[in-house]
């Protein structure tokens, strides 16, 4: 309970005991989860004023809070502050920032972070690649999205349903219904179950092009697999 945590902190300070890095980190995490970012920043500053040095977890928690609340600019400031303390960001920190940047549509800066990761010997994982595929598809850059897909295949990282759905959505947005269906078949072949919305996207695209036969075929497949179209 966050209120109880602050009561304990205040009681400690009243008795002359200063909270440690762990205590501050737990409270900052609680504030971030409740989207109370101004309070989280204030507590972070108080921590610094008391001569405490935040650890990687504290920084990453604050970065995550800012990203989830749409303030990637503030997240990047915290990240720079982290570097100034000679702390090395880990894969979780980078994935958090890349997610925030992709959500904002800043794919160039996301790619810059990928390059920075590589220079520090960190390899992108499934979360990194899936975030980049989704972000690039949403921005209409299918070419780059498929490049990341190639990298995943080369590195023996399996695509998940989020990555496949993003690629299918991107292909449908470009009117590439045949390629979207191929991607659906690939998704099914690796044992993933598409959501009803994924089928619907492709069916709608075929019907728009006047290919009602293929649309009907997919609709029957949906029904056979237990989907109930709305």
UniProtKB/TrEMBL annotation:
Tree of life domain: Eukaryota
Pfam family, one: PPR_2
Keyword terms: Repeat
Placement of PPR repeats on the sequence: 20-54, 55-89, 90-124, 125-159, 160-194, 195-229
SUPFAM superfamilies assigned to the protein according to its UniProt record, in alphabetical order: HCP-like (SSF81901)
InterPro entries, A to Z: PPR_rpt, TPR-like_helical_dom_sf
Annotated protein name in UniProt: Pentatricopeptide repeat-containing protein
Species of provenance: Verbena carnea
């Amino acid at each position: 309970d966050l209120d109880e945590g602050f009561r304990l902190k205040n009681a400690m300070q009243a008795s002359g005991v200063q909270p440690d890095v762990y205590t501050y980190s737990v409270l900052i995490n609680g504030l971030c989860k409740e989207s109370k970012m101004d309070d989280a920043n204030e507590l972070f500053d108080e921590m610094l004023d008391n001569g405490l040095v935040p650890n990687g977890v504290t920084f990453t928690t604050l970065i995550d809070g800012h990203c989830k609340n749409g303030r990637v600019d503030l997240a990047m400031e915290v990240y720079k502050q982290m570097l100034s303390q000679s702390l090395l960001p880990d894969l979780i920190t980078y994935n958090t920032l890349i997610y925030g940047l992709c959500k904002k549509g800043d794919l160039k800066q996301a790619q810059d972070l990928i390059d920075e990761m590589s220079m520090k010997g960190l390899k992108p994982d499934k979360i990194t690649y899936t975030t980049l595929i989704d972000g690039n598809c949403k921005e209409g850059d299918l070419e780059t999205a498929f490049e990341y897909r190639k990298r995943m295949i080369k590195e023996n990282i399996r695509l998940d349903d989020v990555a496949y759905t993003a690629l299918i959505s991107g292909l449908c947005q470009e009117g590439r219904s045949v390629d979207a269906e191929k991607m659906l078949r690939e998704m099914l072949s690796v044992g993933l179950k598409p959501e009803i919305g994924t089928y619907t996207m492709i069916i709608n695209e075929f019907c728009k092009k006047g290919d009602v036969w293929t649309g009907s075929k997919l609709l029957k497949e949906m029904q056979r697999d237990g989907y109930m179209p709305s």
